[in-house]
């Protein structure tokens, strides 16, 4: 074997491991403030009768002699505790004790029963009760905050707190979900009592902050929320909007209730719903609110933030993780177990020719159109929506991942049909031999390919485990996340794997067997075009959705907001998967290794970052 490629592969493997290490160390230094904040991975059985998982952040100067204020923070639906990293980094930096929970059904907490969606405030109030008993926490200064359904969990927790013998929550900050405006009789009321409450209502929120007429027709868009009766009643402490004064956003209003001063404040940043988790403006509003209402031990200007540095380090970890996959695969090809999969020579990419280019570009365009059309069409199927949103019992309880899997499998079948047409109408007549291109490796090599892909997957997630075990960090950027997970996620992933295999194996065969040409004399250009077209359908849908939203203030009719949000990570995943499968194919002349590897990585990533509903 040529020693130069071996040395080059060793360099890329070592570099990928170094990048992952730098990511974990750097992210840890930021979230611990260089060692002045202790991070604990918590798991305990709560009074709700199930296991709750959380990260606890304890500043060194929070002691039994000088207890600190505390905040319980929560992610939204289909997310996990690490999605609150901007908030827990900035709050703990300011001296707050912070508990970032995995809501029931999410992350490493127990599944959420379908008939108990409010149990324990979906875990938040169980977290409040735990943190109130810690000796270094001032139990008279406890706040809660959550994004999206995490804000709904905060509202669930207020109801539980009101019913408790001793009220524990004194401050509430809701991000991108409605506050409580009406009592059980449908009249405007102050349901938060003497608590201080802040609300962030994004102007381009895909789900909330609209007003409707009696027939359910929207009357106002989210960017008009501040003028609505709900907003004005909230700012006027629950009074009927007709009798209250007109109040403004970004203004702190104070009123004496039952002898105590209480605060209301509303912010309406020009951002989308998912951006609320990573918005420097919302983070600034949140930390300023808790500084004002709970008296932060270290008063730091809200705009003075360093969580972005942690985000940069965890994003770097994503890069290292992806880089690791190809050189580690090549290393295993040099072992006795997998040496038979190594190709000494791979047929070079060939010029497409005029007719070949027509098939090439035509197939890509048709695939992109069907990808976009099928996604919208599937989103409108009531039977699939019922399974995806766990409205009916589902043998695969990770409904959102099931939806993406069904869409992926549909497009995998379409890809197979296009490949068959391409081969019989063009390729076969032009001397294309599928066996020479690796499409028929034999059963033994096929099983070897699957085993190799699973070994690489296990090794890659081993890096994620090490980052979590030693540094309490993971590899992520915004909505794209690779995190460690308990064993139940592996079983959920196995149930979903067949759907993802149909797509990623078919996609790898299409990219490497049927569409591997030189464009402009360069194979890398072919790879870049294929990566782009892999993602072009999702890109078109996301762009169309948000251009429409920006212009009209509303989403595309018939295309729900959650479906465009789910596509945001898909755009990057599909592009990167094309590059991975191509690089592995060039070392093996085998399209199945990359296809199975991509499917395994994506299904584990998806299953560990979703909601699990039990029936």
Mean pLDDT: 91
Spans where pLDDT lies below 50 across 5 or more residues: none
Helix content: 40-55%
Strand content: 5-15%
N-to-C CA distance: 56 Å
Number of strands: 17
How would you characterize the largest beta sheet?
Answer: 9 strands, mixed
The rounded Rg comes to 26 Å
Structural class: alpha/beta
User: What is the count of DSSP helices, taking H or I runs of 4+ residues?
Assistant: 15
Shape: globular
Describe the protein.
The longest helix has 30 residues, at 523-552. A 9-stranded mixed sheet has the order 1-2-4-3-6-7-8-12-11, sandwiched between helices. A two-stranded parallel sheet has the order 5-17. Strands 9-10 form a two-stranded antiparallel ribbon. The chain has helices at 3-31, 85-93, 124-132, 149-163, 229-235, 280-294, 307-333, 353-379, 382-388, 399-427, 443-471, 488-514, 523-552, 561-588, 591-607; strands at 37-45, 51-59, 68-74, 97-102, 112-113, 137-147, 171-175, 196-200, 211-212, 218-220, 253-257, 260-267, 350-351, 475-477, 480-482, 517-518, 613-614. With 615 residues, the protein is of the alpha/beta class. The protein is built from 15 helices and 17 strands. Strand 11 (253-257) and strand 12 form a beta hairpin.
Which keywords apply here?
alpha/beta, 615 residues, 50% helix, nine-stranded mixed β-sheet, 17 strands
SSE layout and pairing:
Elements: H1 3-31, E1 37-45, E2 51-59, E3 68-74, H2 85-93, E4 97-102, E5 112-113, H3 124-132, E6 137-147, H4 149-163, E7 171-175, E8 196-200, E9 211-212, E10 218-220, H5 229-235, E11 253-257, E12 260-267, H6 280-294, H7 307-333, E13 350-351, H8 353-379, H9 382-388, H10 399-427, H11 443-471, E14 475-477, E15 480-482, H12 488-514, E16 517-518, H13 523-552, H14 561-588, H15 591-607, E17 613-614
Parallel strand pairs: 3-4, 3-6, 5-17, 6-7, 7-8, 8-12, 13-16
Antiparallel strand pairs: 1-2, 2-4, 9-10, 11-12, 14-15
């Amino acid at each position: 074997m040529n020693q130069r490629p071996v040395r080059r592969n060793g360099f890329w493997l070592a570099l990928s491991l170094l990048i992952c290490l730098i990511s974990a160390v750097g992210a840890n230094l930021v979230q611990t403030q260089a060692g002045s904040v202790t991070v604990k991975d918590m798991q305990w059985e709560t009074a709700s009768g199930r296991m709750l998982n959380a990260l606890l952040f304890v500043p060194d100067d929070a002691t039994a002699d000088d207890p600190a204020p505390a905040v319980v923070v929560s992610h939204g639906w289909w997310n996990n505790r690490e999605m609150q990293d901007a908030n827990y980094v900035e709050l703990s930096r300011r001296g707050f004790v912070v508990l970032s929970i995995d809501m029931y059904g999410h992350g490493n907490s127990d599944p959420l029963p379908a008939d108990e969606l409010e149990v324990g405030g979906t875990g938040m109030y169980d977290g409040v009760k735990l943190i109130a008993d810690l000796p270094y926490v001032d139990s008279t200064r406890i706040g809660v905050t959550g994004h999206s359904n995490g804000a709904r969990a905060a509202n669930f927790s207020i109801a539980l707190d009101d019913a408790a013998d001793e009220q524990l929550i004194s401050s509430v900050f809701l991000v991108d979900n409605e506050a409580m405006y009406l009592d059980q009789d449908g009249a405007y009321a102050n349901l938060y009592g003497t608590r201080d409450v802040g609300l962030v209502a994004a102007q381009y929120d895909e789900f909330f902050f609209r007003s409707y007429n009696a027939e359910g027709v929207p009357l106002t868009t989210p960017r008009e929320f501040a003028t609505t009766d709900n907003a004005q009643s909230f700012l006027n402490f629950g009074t009927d909007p007709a009798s209250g004064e007109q109040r403004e956003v970004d203004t702190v209003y104070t009123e004496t209730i039952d002898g105590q001063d209480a605060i209301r404040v509303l912010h309406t940043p020009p951002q989308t719903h998912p951006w609320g988790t990573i918005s420097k403006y919302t983070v600034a509003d949140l930390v300023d609110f808790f500084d004002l209402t709970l008296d932060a031990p270290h008063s730091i200007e809200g705009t003075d933030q360093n969580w972005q540095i942690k985000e940069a380090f965890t994003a770097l970890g994503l890069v290292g993780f992806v880089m690791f996959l190809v050189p580690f695969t090549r290393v295993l090809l040099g072992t006795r177990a997998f040496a038979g999969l190594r190709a000494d020579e791979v047929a070079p990419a060939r010029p497409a020719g005029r007719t070949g280019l027509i098939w090439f570009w035509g197939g890509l365009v048709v695939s992109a159109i069907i990808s976009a059309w099928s996604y919208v069409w599937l989103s409108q199927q009531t039977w699939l929506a019922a399974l995806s949103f766990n409205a009916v019992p589902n043998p695969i309880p990770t409904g959102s991942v099931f939806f993406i899997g069904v869409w992926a499998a549909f497009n995998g079948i379409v890809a197979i049909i296009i490949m068959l047409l391409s081969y019989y109408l063009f390729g076969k007549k032009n001397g294309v031999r599928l066996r020479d291109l690796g499409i028929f490796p034999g059963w033994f090599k096929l099983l070897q390919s699957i085993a190799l892909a699973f070994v690489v997957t296990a090794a890659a997630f081993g890096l994620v485990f090490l980052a979590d075990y030693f540094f309490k960090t993971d590899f992520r950027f915004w909505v794209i996340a690779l995190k460690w997970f308990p064993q139940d996620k592996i079983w959920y992933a196995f149930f979903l794997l067949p759907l993802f295999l149909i797509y990623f194996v078919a996609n790898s065969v299409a990219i490497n067997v049927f569409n591997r040409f030189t464009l402009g004399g360069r194979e890398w250009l072919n790879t870049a075009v294929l990566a782009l077209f892999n993602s072009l359908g999702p890109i078109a849908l996301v762009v169309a959705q948000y251009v429409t939203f920006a212009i009209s203030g509303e989403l595309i009719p018939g295309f729900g907001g959650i479906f465009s949000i789910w596509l945001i990570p898909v755009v990057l995943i599909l592009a990167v998967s094309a590059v991975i499968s191509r690089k592995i194919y060039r070392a093996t002349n085998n399209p199945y290794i990359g296809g199975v590897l991509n499917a395994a990585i994506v299904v584990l990533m998806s299953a560990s970052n979703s909601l699990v509903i039990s029936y």
